Each structure stands twice: as structure tokens, then as C-alpha cells.
Amino acid sequence: MDRIFSPLGSRPTASQVAAGHDLSGQRAIVTGASAGIGVETARALAETGAEVVLAVRDMAAGHKLADDIVADGGSAYASHLDLMDLDSVRAFAGREGQRPLKLLINNAGIMGCPFARTLQGFEAQLGVNHVAHHLLATLLLPALQRGVPSRVVALSSEAHRWGHFRFDDPHCANRPYDALVAYGQSKTANALFAVAFDMRGAASGVRAFSVMPGGILTSLGRSLSDEDRQRMEITEEMIREAKTVSQGAATTIWAALGSELEGKGGLYLEDMATALPADQTGDSKGVMDYAVDPDTAERLWTWTETAISETEEG
Predict the structure, then answer these.
(1) Among 53, 140, 232, 234, which is most buried by a count of CB atoms within 10 Å?
(2) Is 177 designated active site?
(3) pLDDT-derived band at 240, boundaries 50, 70, 90
(4) How much is the pTM?
């Protein structure tokens, strides 16, 4: 398939991408909306007239952002969601899945943290970044179907290059825990989720995309060790060329609203365009084949559904 580009270039702001779109009377959910690019994503969607549900663990920060959005003439409210606990995901979906939903932005994530497990026993980065978002999206699918045409956006990362999905040991039980490799696995899972979810939703008008936001200086990497920071080889040039937070949210907004993407889905997007295969870029950009492979996506879907069902049985 030919590449798809936004006419706005590779580094617009989220507000510039949202300009001209009217989502009055529509609802959008943004997870992790109280910090980083989640804030700019929520603000940009509110500028379209959408009612934005700020799905956050930190309710004080969520209420503050909601108040700011309302003061600027938008519509938003905070609703509690703790992605470390699947019961919290179920409770959130029960509250917020009663009305039609136009957009679900799976934005929240953790990166490079010391080894930990979620309440249901998943390795924390995999559990938060992928499993909880998978459950959230599947529970909200009926609401998304009532809001068609609708879209789901999963935030992946160029870090998917650091780890394919280890079906033989997803929770690092039988290998040394490597925070970066585990993060990479979770970002691969995000991209594969978009492929599999789109295959299930396309016929009813629910499409899904995964997004690489770009190099951005946010608090996401606050848990990284000094050793891991060195391994990432972050140079002064990379820091100088980093996107602003609003530029980092732009591809998410394009994935959610871009008319160029109508009738499409399951795509990995970066810099306001569909990504090239990684072996054609010559740098850190592009998407690895294993992160968008339909067979692997189906295998991961089955693994995830089984893993979630086992927590219910337990």
C-alpha cells in the first residue's frame, strides 16, 4: 500500500491538527490524560467540541486539567482508572461505556521501571501498557460501535525495536529482567493490538491505529536507571531536535481525526504519516515487520484474552 501523509508536514502541533474538525456532541476517552502528551491530546480534542473523559489515576491532576479545559470553553471531566488493576478497568468501562464513544486514545504508559507486577500478576510494563488497555478497548467496543465511525489509537514507540513479544516468557519469569527489553515488548504489543483490534472492528466502522509520537522530553522515563539512560544513547543532538509536547501529541490527533485515514486501519503511524518498514529507513524510524504481522497479532490477541480470563477464574 502506498504511504499516507498528512498535508500538515511532520511536526505540526496537536491543535493545528485538530483545527477545522467538529466533534460537538461526541465523546472521547484519553487514558493517562493528566501528564505529558496526554494533556495536549485531551486539550486538542476538547478544542474540536468533543466531551473529553480524562481517564486518570491521579484524580487531583485530572480535576485540575478538566477545570482548565472548561475554563477555556471546552468540555471535560476526570474519571478514575488504575491500569495496574484490571478490576479498575472493568469499573471504568462500566461507568463510561454506557453512551456512544467516538474515540478511545490508549495513551497512558510506564517506561523502564524496576521489576514489578500488576495486581493480577502481569509484569508491570506489559500489564499497564498492553493488557489493561486491551481489556479497556474490548469492554468499550459496544460503545465505540454505537459511535461509528469511531477510532482507537494505541500509543506504541520506536522502542518496539527493543523487544519482540516473548510468548515463551512474557513476564520475565525465566530470564533476567531488562527494563528496556520489557518496555520494548509492551510497545510491540501495542502495535500488534491495533492490527488485531482493527480486524475485529473494521466491518462495523471501528478502526484502530498505533502511533509513534516521536522523541519528546516528558516525565515518562523518570524511572530509568542511569545505566539504562546510557544504553539508550541519548545525544545532545537528539535533545535539541526533540519535539515539543504538543508536537508529540500531533500524530495521535491525526490518527484520531485525519480524513486521509478514512477507510484504513491497523497501521503504524509516525511523524504524521504511515511508517516505512524499519529496514528501509536507515535510522531508528520505521516499524519492524514483527510488530505489524497479522498472524502474530492474532496469536497475541488469543494470549491476552486467555491471560485476562485466567485472572477472572482466579
Answers:
(1) 53
(2) no
(3) low
(4) 0.93
